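Recap for those who missed Tuesday's class. We walked through two folding examples back to back. For each one, the amino acid string is listed first and its predicted structure tokens come directly after. Nothing is annotated here on purpose, so try labeling regions yourself before you check the end of the notes.
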Amino acid sequence: MWPLWLLASLLALSQALPFEQRGFWDFTLDDGPFMMNDEEASGADTSGILDPDSVTPTYSAMCPFGCHCHLRVVQCSDLGLKSVPKEISPDTTLLDLQNNDISELRKDDFKGLQHLYVRSWEEPAGLQQGAGVRALVLVNNKISKIHEKAFSPLRKLQKLYISKNHLVEIPPNLPSSLVELRIHDNRIRKVPKGVFSGLRNMNCIEMGGNPLENSGFEPGAFDGLKLNYLRISEAKLTGIPKDLPETLNELHLDHNKIQAIELEDLLRYSKLYRLGLGHNQIRMIENGSLSFLPTLRELHLDNNKLARVPSGLPDLKLLQVVYLHSNNITKVGVNDFCPVGFGVKRAYYNGISLFNNPVPYWEVQPATFRCVTDRLAIQFGNYKK
């Protein structure tokens, strides 16, 4: 169980944008700008820091048995709960139900908790009256059934963490205010059209660790979404799904069964700055495929079956990091990474990994890495079968 002082500390240290999450609290290491909600965008004052003198405490007598309740935080993790407790104070702003045995979310489980919402983990000033950081955590339970109106009282919910459960479908009628959905490590096989309709504020979806195949994405499944971040790792994809949001800045499809990147696969995603395709079975990247990614800064192609450095890298003026280790690359040409001529590339590389490839590195010409910031940024290593 997380002590309340540590929970508050984590809230104070965390950042906004998501990344690859290996453990639940890993999201506290995210970096990037915070996405404002409508209230903040309108100029409402929601700033501040976690200051005990500025926090308005409440002393409600309502606290579920075995839980810890303080400053509108109700912590009920690791208690073996079979259902959502009933004795939750209506002024609760953070409800922690992770690591229990809850199997179902019923219609009235969150009734009366209309003040519960997540603005962001990184803005602890939200504990103040009327502004607060408010959260609902359902990670690592046994939830397999969610009533269609279970989330109806949570009209301001912005972040829903319901990973590591037994869900076979995306929860219905998600609150329109939702910004972030983490639903990885469930049993979801299908993303139907319309399941995300009305979620105009959605910024991030993490749905890795589900047995999703390409055929599981219905046409128009992501219509209307303006996502910044999407992760569908550790699934059963054999190619890049079609019709993903054009607004994506980060797309992570690692640990799948993708075999090739064809010309039209990346056509829609000109705003990508981070693309994760590591741990797949990619043998071929069609010439010109990467030309549709003019803002790309980081490319993960490690642990695939590439026989050569992908063409088009010198034309990516902002590309700084390329992971190509653990492939079948046997040769590196003098112009594989850097453009011909000076002043063409706007950002030099600060990381190129080529280790665990059958490349005779002593034959690679030094000029090959003329657009790299430092020789330490190049990782070769000895190839071992």
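Example two. Treat it independently of the first, because the proteins are unrelated.
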Amino acid sequence: MAAEETRLSEAFPMKAGAGPNSYAKNSTYQRGVADAAKELLTKAIAENLDTEILLSSNTFHIADLGCSVGPNTFYAVKNILESVQSKYQSKGPNSQIPEFQVFFNDHTTNDFNILFKSLPHNRHYHAAGVPGSFYGRIFPNASVHIVHSSYTNHWLSRVPKDVTDSNSPAWNKGRIHYLKSTDEVVRAYEDQFARDMECFLHVRSQEIVNGGLMVLTIPGRPDGTPHSHAAANVTYQLLGTCLIEMAKKGIVSEDKVDAFNIPIYYMSPKELEAAVEQNGCFSVEGMEILPYVSTLHSVAKTAPLIALHVRAATEGLFKLHFGDAILDELFDLYCKNLVAQHCIFKSTEVFNFFAVLKRKAN
């Protein structure tokens, strides 16, 4: 299964480079979420990392999946490393702190050049880039002690096949996402998420040592709430209306719009728990809602900033399907519509949660 998933997974890299529209310059929102998770991350390592793991190797391996181009990945790694060091030191003044090896993982099309150029000069770890989709195997058996991933698990491995098939009941004509679409489209996205999460947990169960940890920061939606409750889903709905507006003006082809869908799904904590239970190789050691304050109450005031952040994360998708020519006009229109239609966000919220999974003994 892992080999097949690796072969079929599509790549959705963040905006490369260090320019004004780049992910490196427009990911402060994700940094805010990481700040909110820092205390929980420290607590998770202190309470759940087994002493046996600390003593089993002279090199401690940390992996950040979906690292993108920085700087947020370096901040997360620093927090993990300091937490592990504190765990070692708590064992006594004579505890031997090991060397640390950090693996930065993302798709092969990720801008690793910017990532490596931005590496902190005062880092206390050896760094290596590991290209490949995290829906497939990327590390040897039982070789990683802590896996971290933040703001990545909402990305599907691919657009659900049926939503782009005009002969399928799940054809998503006139929309680019599942919000306010048919039940068949929603089920297609749900099924793709279930398959992807099954694969993600399966391959991680092979790579993480017994007793090792996986800590995930996930954008999602509260248990028992409709998909319309997630503010990000409304964002993609609004982007879709922008494309339709451009199609009516003849700027883009309507057929092109019908063939385009965003490969993103916002899970609930219960959906993650169900996937972990079905996998059977991990225990859920903790799951907390992050106390992050959204700026969506003032969408009209922060529209340019929101547009830049959304563009940095999704430009690659639009460029691949529609080309470069429409990008400026699309996101300018999106910014204007954020201001004009900001009321559509009133019944939504930004929901992020933090999950700690522990690898069970074989």
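Answers for example two:
The two ends are 20 Å apart (CA to CA).
The first strand starts at residue 59 and ends at 65.
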